[in-house]
């Protein structure tokens, strides 16, 4: 098995490579936009939202799954809001509450105090379970206030602990505190990239662990519970950093494929005989941003009849 120090070094190398490669993309904003949309879909699906990435990309075309799509769009807005806000504020409880307010604005969970920490007891378990049959009961509202204060201090304290280990512990701690009545899972996953951004490990929101957590869902919840019940931190940290390595490699591969595909497409367009190259390039750029096109869109873009 991989030693913890070796695994951490590998994760740092991959994160650095991912961030460096992202800068080389011909249209970094487009890539980030699509990546955030993909993450929003997967993170929301973990919570039971049924919409797909196709539904989100078609959101302006009378989509039937409008409610589910709105939840995902809110996740996108919350991510963009939080990254922008990090330029003005440190990663603090105020920023987390503001982001939560954007996440739950006008969608399911809107009645559950968006942007406010809970003032009542909550619990985690199967649908319909009670406080007595719950698999886990987070701290009471009074204890929660102290726990959040400790978490905020931990986020900002300088220590000899690797920032990647800190990220794993911050995510675990947030999910254990479960400070909101709804949206804790999504906020906890978003907190991962916000901490990595604040620590200068990533520049763009292109690393998301939701796919890894979804793929290893049972193991994810089992390891979180093992930390809570048995204090087994090492296995959780190892799992978390393995996720960072796997998802970084996946994102690096995606970037390489995008660069190659765009180069091939551009060559094909330029080699079209008697083609209106400028109009074709205009349509191609639009297609990258809006994968679902109608004839009218093309006509408006290129003035073709």
From TrEMBL:
It comes from the Bacteria. Keywords: ATP-binding, Nucleotide-binding. ATP binds at residues 182-189, 220-221. The keyword ATP-binding applies. The active site is at residue 178. Gene3D superfamilies: Fido-like domain. GO terms for molecular function: ATP binding. The keyword 4Fe-4S does not apply. This is Fido domain-containing protein. InterPro entries: Fic/DOC_N (IPR025758), Fido (IPR003812), Fido-like_dom_sf (IPR036597), Fido_containing (IPR040198).
């Amino acid at each position: 098995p991989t030693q913890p120090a070796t695994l951490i070094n590998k994760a740092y190398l991959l994160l650095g490579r991912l961030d460096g490669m992202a800068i080389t993309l011909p249209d970094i904003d487009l890539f980030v936009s699509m990546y955030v949309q993909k993450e929003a879909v997967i993170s929301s699906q973990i919570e039971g939202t049924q919409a797909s990435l196709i539904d989100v990309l078609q959101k302006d075309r009378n989509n039937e799954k409008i409610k589910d799509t709105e939840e995902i769009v809110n996740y996108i807005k919350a991510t963009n809001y939080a990254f922008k806000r990090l330029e003005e504020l440190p990663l603090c409880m105020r920023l987390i509450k503001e982001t939560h307010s954007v996440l739950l604005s006008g969608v399911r969970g809107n009645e559950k105090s968006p942007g406010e920490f809970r003032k009542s007891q909550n619990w985690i378990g199967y649908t319909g379970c009670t406080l007595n049959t719950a698999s886990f009961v987070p701290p009471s509202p009074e204890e929660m206030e102290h726990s959040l204060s400790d978490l905020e201090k931990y986020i900002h304290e300088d220590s000899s602990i690797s920032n990647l280990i800190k990220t794993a512990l911050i995510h675990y701690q947030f999910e254990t505190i479960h400070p909101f009545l709804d949206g804790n899972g999504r906020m906890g996953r978003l907190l991962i990239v916000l901490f990595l951004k604040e620590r200068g490990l990533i520049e763009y929101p292109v690393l998301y662990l939701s796919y890894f957590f979804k793929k290893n869902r049972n193991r994810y919840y089992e390891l979180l519970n093992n930390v809570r019940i048995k204090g087994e931190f090492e296995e959780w940290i190892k799992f978390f950093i393995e996720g960072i390595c796997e998802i970084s490699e996946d994102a690096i591969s995606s970037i390489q494929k995008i660069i190659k595909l765009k180069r091939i497409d551009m060559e094909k367009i330029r080699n079209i005989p008697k083609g209106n190259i400028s109009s074709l390039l205009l349509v191609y750029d639009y297609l990258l941003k809006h994968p679902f096109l109608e004839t009218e869109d093309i006509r408006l873009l290129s003035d073709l009849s």
